[in-house]
Amino acid sequence: MTDSRANFSASRRQFGRQLLSVGALAAALPGAATAATSPFPAKPITVLLPFPPGGSADAMVRAITHVAMAELGQPVVIMHRPGGGGVTGTASLTQNVAPDGHTLALMHNAVLRQPLLQKVGWDPLVDFTYITGLASLSTLITVRADAPWKNLQELLADAKARPGAISYGTVGATSANRIAGEQLARLVGGQFNMVPYKGGAEAITALMGGHLDVYGDPGVGPVALSGKLRVLASFTDQRLQRFPAVPTVKELGYGLSVYSPFGIVGPRGMDAAVVDRLHTVFSQAATDPIYQKVLEDYDFMPYRMDPAAYRQYAQEQFAREKTLLQKLGFKPE
């Protein structure tokens, strides 16, 4: 009897140690405890916006997150982190941010382009989780309604006759629209004085106030329709529905178009189930009439991509940017 009790006690101790070992292993697995106890989202979600309040990107993100909140069941807080040509805010995701899906950021092509222009401590193809593509900007070339240039040809002729005398505003020193403006001027042997702004609202205010000659970025639609601005051309493949009389740069013979999709990304290493949940919610929100109206008001074009397609786009766009910058002579600082 004594031997049986001893054996039973030994077996209980061994079984207890096995349970502790299994528990320790489970706790060590990445996200195991969180996945088991905390449905996503477990707290408010923060979206980092790399531009100041008041611009077209701000309006778009506010609209889609407002719709998405109902499905997520948690507030979505927009945190503005402008600077660095719209790169700093998004890049901050690479600085010890937990990959739990509760901190996201707006991605755009300037972030992909940045490592090709200067040394940074992150890789846009490695250090982000691509969640969903949203919309692409429609870039318009605009001047004040009382400006001397009645069309794009007159503007470019003046840029050639007076190189560097005409100020051309863009959002970010390395934005796609700044590069397109540089290309456009070079095609005619001219030059603009490129002036970077932190956001579209700031640039439009400068244009309206006479402190800027030309604005070559998106988001001017509402002001242009009021008659306060003159739209000379668009960097789109086809004329915009709201501006049917405005020619495209391509149809005027200059062969340039600009597409710069916005999307949502998170830190690297996010759980696939969380990524899928976020993509599904944002995709559903993108069909809402409120969001669709904002896209129309600010001349966005839908550019929806799932996580795999968005990552592939980023890889291909990075290669395109590298080729273009080498052609234009841009070198890393």
TrEMBL record:
It comes from the Bacteria. Transmembrane segments: none annotated. Keywords: Receptor, Signal. The keyword Signal applies. InterPro entries: BUG, Bug_dom1, TAT_signal. Coiled coil: none annotated. The keyword Signal applies. Residues 1-35 form the signal peptide. CDD domains: PBP2_Bug_TTT. It holds the Pfam family TctC. PANTHER family: BLR1237 PROTEIN, TRICARBOXYLATE-BINDING PROTEIN. This is Tripartite-type tricarboxylate transporter receptor subunit TctC. It comes from Simplicispira metamorpha. The lineage of its organism: Bacteria, Pseudomonadati, Pseudomonadota, Betaproteobacteria, Burkholderiales.
